[in-house]
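Repro case for the chain-ordering regression, as requested:
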Amino acid sequence: DGGITQSPKYLFRKEGQNVTLSCEQNLNHDAMYWYRQDPGQGLRLIYYSQIVNDFQKGDIAEGYSVSREKKESFPLTVTSAQKNPTAFYLCASSFGTQDTRGQYFGPGTRLTVT
Amino acid sequence: DAKTTQPTSMDCAEGRAANLPCNHSTISGNEYVYWYRQIHSQGPQYIIHGLKNNETNEMASLIITEDRKSSTLILPHATLRDTAVYYCIVSSGNTPLVFGKGTRLSVIA
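-- result from build under test --
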């Protein structure tokens, strides 16, 4: 898990409520990422940020929002517009563009919406 | 879509070498081959990466063919704790990693 914290590990919400997932890193990484994983599937990119105060949509951004006000933090909000929010959410960080050392992942948050 | 092809699943006897293949026939000259693994309900863990030379670290060895169209991850002495999904990814490093479904490796006692 190496310096990336996601909290909480399990999260339960009622349908129609927005929920914010936390991701913090102390690796001094410039770039941060959010992925979603459904059972038996690979990871799909939601949003990523290469620098503070800037972020880009990934493949499945609809129904999600992010902010990057600090280098260390990249919270993800799952809004009520997300049709199937129940999933395993993974945050990652890396040294950023032009760096080939790969991404480091947090332990994940399992969100259940009923 | 992921630019790699991996077998869906593999078995390996405990203590034996696990050899996980990956095809990446459309790899570009500036793209690296990355391997990650994901143990159930945990975040993916970086294993190793390489450009064209073979690489070895404390976890595994990576063998890349001379034409770079395929590679093999080798876990030299597999243990039960190596049971996981293994992902092979090609990337130039300046874009987010794209994960396919990987190979589910089962190490059997």
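Ordering looks correct now. Chain A has no helices and eleven strands.
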